[in-house]
Write a structure and sequence with these properties.
Length: about 375
């Protein structure tokens, strides 16, 4: 085969297409994103998480009977893990302040418990089974990093992933409006183009490594504040601003110091992030002490960023209202990014499966800009 012509990619790989996908697509100038031909915000408004999960993995939206069966299957897969796994996760991660790092470790332990083997060595059916099981166990792993004794609650959990997740984390049955709010958030964040963590997942899958490696690497990419680590920082900003009258000065000072306002800006969107729109609505429905302040800060930040950064459209992104919704649903800020990982794992595993269609290891080049080779070192 002839060597491919060398091309230099732009900084941050912006605008570079590296793979085909049928899973989803983001249209930045239209403010639109979809999963397999369905507007993702419509799915979030109208479907259960498990229905959308089925769509991502099998390519179609299930009817009610299929959806119930699939939901039960997911719940059953959670119970198939060894109960001692969750105690081990708690022991290993208890006291860790960084809950995303804890989840990373937990997923590694879960993959070992499942007997995950190199992706390339598995049959298509085995891959689907492992993809479902490792994504299904996410809520339990997050809960086990958060509190002890999770395994004892397994038999009393509702089948719905969102309801089970809230119950696992808080230790009590969740109110329906909180479950609906969280479920919308989870559906909205399953997939979003070839973002950094999904790209990472596909790179690792392309090497044929096991699915545990895919998830651990993807969580690592997600944990960065420029990707999934922003929601708790957005809430910290609101706490720091504290009252509406302080918003304008706070934002001007931060931008003046060259800092980024968390929850604003996006690589692809040049409009309001459509996920932010539905989450804002959801946050308003839930109410709560922070909502009015959040809306005021959002308007102020939009205006100030337009004035101070006129060359770049910097509108609100998913992370801003995600923080408000998760907070109002009863999740502690330390679990915001792990919660993002719970839903994005559905997308990562779908991409790991898709990567196996005509897989070729992803192996780009770098351009060497160091010093020219020096004379050979003489043997001493
Ligand atoms: C999301 C993000 C990483 C996209 O980055 P990107 O496409 O690489 O954009 P760039 O880093 O090239 O930024 C372009 C310009 O906008 C500015 N900018 C980008 N996001 C900004 C923000 N949130 N606040 C203030 N300025 C911002 C940059 O400083 C830069 O300005 P400059 O040219 O004067 O230096 C970036 O907008 C960001 O850091 N946002 C805050 C973190 C966040 O909300 N992350 C969640 C993403 S869903």
């Amino acid at each position: 085969m002839m060597a491919a012509a060398v091309q230099v990619a732009p900084s941050g790989l912006e605008g570079v297409v590296v793979t085909d996908t049928q899973i989803g697509d983001v249209r930045g100038t239209e403010g639109f994103f979809q999963y397999r031909g369905y507007d993702a915000t419509d799915l979030a408004r109208n479907c259960r998480l498990e229905e959308v999960w089925h769509l991502l993995l099998y390519g179609d939206l299930p009817d009610t009977t299929e959806a119930d069966r699939f939901t039960d299957r997911i719940a059953g897969l959670r119970r198939d893990f060894t109960p001692a796994l969750f105690d081990r996760v708690h022991q290993v991660t208890a006291g860790a302040t960084d809950r995303v790092a804890a989840l990373r470790t937990a997923w590694s332990l879960a993959a070992a418990d499942l007997g995950a083997r190199p992706w390339l060595d598995l049959s298509p059916q085995q891959r689907i089974d492992q993809a479902l099981a490792l994504a299904a166990v996410g809520p339990l792993l997050v809960a086990a990093t958060h509190r002890p004794g999770v395994a004892a609650d397994l038999d009393d959990l509702p089948a719905s992933t969102a309801a089970a997740y809230l119950q696992l984390v808080t230790g009590e049955a969740a109110k329906p409006d909180r479950v609906t709010a969280l479920e919308r958030y989870l559906v909205l964040t399953i997939d979003h183009g070839l973002n950094a963590s999904t790209f990472t997942a596909r790179v690792v899958a392309s090497t044929g490594a096991d699915l545990g490696a895919v998830l651990v690497a993807a969580v690592g990419a997600l944990s960065g504040p420029l990707h999934g680590g922003a929601p708790s920082l957005a809430l910290e900003m609101l706490d720091d601003i504290a009252t509406p009258d302080r918003a304008e000065a706070w934002i001007r000072d931060a931008v003046g110091r060259g800092e980024r306002i968390m929850g604003f800006g996006h690589r692809i969107y040049r409009t309001e992030d459509p996920r932010a729109r539905l989450l804002r609505e959801t946050a308003q429905e839930l109410g709560g002490p922070r909502i009015d302040l959040a809306l005021h800060v959002e308007q102020t930040a939009r205006r100030v960023l337009r004035e101070l950064k006129p060359d770049r459209v910097l509108d609100v992104n998913v992370e801003y209202h995600a923080a408000i919704v998760m907070d109002a649903a009863g999740l502690p800020p330390a679990l915001f990014t792990p919660t993002f990982a719970v839903s994005r794992a559905i997308g990562w595993t779908a991409h790991a499966l898709e990567q196996m269609d005509g897989n070729r290891i992803m192996r780009p080049n770098s351009r060497y800009t160091g010093p020219e080779p020096v004379r050979p070192i003489r043997p001493r």
